Amino acid sequence: MFGRLHHPVWVHLPALSLLGATVFLMLSAWPWPESIPVHFGRGGRVDRTGSPWELVIALFILPLGFVVISFLADEHWARRERRKRFNWISLIDEVILSNMTALAAFSFGDELRQGTAARFSYPWLLFLILAVGSVGLGVVLELRRPWRPEPGVPEEPEDLQVSGDADVLARTREGRKWAYFESQNPLWISAVILLASLSLLVGAWNTWNHSRVIAIFMACMAALMMLVFGGFRSTVSSEGLKLRLGILGIRLLRIERSEIREVVVHQFSPLADFGGWGIRRGKGMWGYFLGGNRGVKIVTAAGKKYLIGSDTPDRLAAVLQALKARG
Amino acid sequence: MLITIDESAPEPIYRQIMQQIKEQIRDGRLKSGEPLPSVRDLADALAINLHTVRHAYDRLRDQGILRFRLGQRAKVAALRDRPASREEIESTLLPRLRELITDAFHLGLTAKQFQNLVEEALEQEE
Description:
The complex is a heterodimer of chains A (327) and B (126). Chain A has 327 residues and is α+β, with helices and mostly antiparallel strands.
């Protein structure tokens, strides 16, 4: 599935150590009582007891899943690198797992062994010690992460100047009305948005009796997330470029024909160059992309740069080039 | 999807839109399941009446080229996995074919010349 790994497994040592510490804390409290405090309400008082296995899911299974996602993200980062760049995103899992381990230390401590109700008190000091230590170690390992350039691959990919496309030029000639449409809406983005919205709605439902304010807030967040469902939609016409978002078509960007100074196909790394996907700032420009590693970079007369993600960047660039030529 | 309309052409605008969508599906630029711009978006971008666009989309749906679902934009339907029925072919293709044959007659073409022309066009498309 992966072939040769591009990043060493040992960079995940801090996160794996924290996970191991969590397992140790759980096992050291064995045998577990049948029922323990699993949820704390207002004021830190226990408002629900349950099986210790609920905590295993929350404090071990979920972090384990997060470590797997972190592994995949780091591999993606390493494969896209053209020169060594500090992968600061890799430090996020150390912070999250430090939190989980601190909670495990509290949950599987004396209160679990004794099975007595207790007031929740977040172990801040323990969390800070674990976080600082694991992040520090993570920084050292990331700095020492080896990287070798692939022969023949330039450090920065060259932008591709787009020459006129005869078909596009013919169809967009003066005297004709024309419009070009494309969208970028990967399936996994839609799945994540739906899942996240559903989780928020379920959380709002469960929280309704405890706190209506939080429940309403969660429901509003779910509604906001659904606004972005549908991805990005680009429309190019004789007037210029418009970029819209989601099912409501919220306008994000408008570039008039007269503003366009340069159009090139640009290769980029979403994680390394912009820190992720969506509406991002990086490399001195605003990026609007949800997938792939190629898009169209537009430089305006005012010197502003925009990167429009596209599944067919050559086609989009050809249309924009034809638009610019008419101006 | 690139749509161009020529308002000075004798062909109605809705037919121009229909023809271009069909051509882009045929040459693979539009794929099965791909959503099309909404009626309003296409009408706004081309500065034409949205009923014109809706008429084009409805005709394409009736021909089985687009599919509509409630709450979603029109999408390109799956391509046929077998040819249409004889009845459907006769009702959609034959009238237009007869029209072409009549036009060829008025241009002075013989049946053989018209047949050669059709074969040349098919070879170019392939």
